[in-house]
Write a structure and sequence with these properties.
- This protein has 145 residues and is α/β, with parallel strands linked by helices.
- It has a single domain (7-136), classed as Rossmann fold, CATH 3.40.50.2300.
- The chain contains six helices and five strands.
- It has a five-stranded parallel beta sheet with strand order 2-1-3-4-5, with helices on both faces.
- Helix 1 (14-30) packs across helix 6 (122-138).
- The longest helix has 17 residues, at 14-30.
- The radius of gyration is 14 Å and the shape is globular.
- It starts with 6 loop residues before the first strand and ends in a 7-residue tail after the last helix.
- The mean pLDDT is 90.
C-alpha cells in the first residue's frame, strides 16, 4: 500500500461519482493529504488501470451494483490476480445496498476490508470518507512486491 497513492473510486452512477469526488477533495484538502482521486464508471476501465500501472494505489472504493462487472466480480478478479493482490490495496464497498446480509457476507468472503452504506447527508459523507482514509493512513500493511 502506498500512503500517498491514488484513491480509486468505481461507481456507475455519475452523480454518486461526482459527490464522492467532491467529498474526497474536501477530505484531502482539510487533512493535507497528497492523494489523487481517480474515478471510473465501470470495472473494466478500473481493472485496466490497476493492471497497467506499476504503482500501488492507496485505496479502492467500489460500488457493488454495476452493469457488466459488479463490485464482487471486480474484487474477485483483483483477489485472484497475484500481482494485483500483492499490491495490498485496501478494497472497500460503498453501496446503497445497506444492511443486505447476503451482500455483507459475500463481501467478507472476498476479503474486502470494509462495507459501508452511502450516506444521504453531505456531512455524514464527509465524516465517513474522513474515517475511512484516516484508518488506512495509520494501518500497517506490508506490500509483498
Amino acid at each position: 500500500m502506498n500512503l500517498n497513492g491514488k484513491i480509486i473510486v468505481i461507481d456507475d452512477d455519475r452523480e454518486d461519482l461526482e459527490v464522492i469526488q467532491e467529498v474526497f477533495d474536501i477530505v484531502i484538502r482539510k487533512n493535507d493529504y497528497t492523494n489523487e482521486v481517480l474515478t471510473f464508471n465501470n470495472g473494466e476501465d478500473a481493472l485496466k488501470f490497476l493492471t497497467d500501472t506499476p504503482d500501488s494505489p492507496f485505496l479502492i472504493v467500489s460500488d457493488i451494483n454495476m452493469p457488466r462487472l459488479n463490485g464482487f466480480e471486480i474484487r474477485r478478479i483483483i483477489f485472484d490476480n497475484p500481482v494485483l493482490r500483492d499490491k495490498c490495496v485496501p478494497y472497500v464497498f460503498l453501496t446503497t445496498s445497506g444492511d443486505n446480509t447476503e451482500f455483507m457476507k459475500k463481501s467478507y468472503e472476498l476479503s474486502v476490508q470494509g462495507y459501508f452504506t452511502k450516506p444521504n447527508d453531505y456531512a455524514d459523507y464527509e465524516q465517513l470518507l474522513t474515517d475511512i482514509v484516516r484508518y488506512w493512513k495509520v494501518a500497517k500493511i506490508a506490500n509483498r512486491i
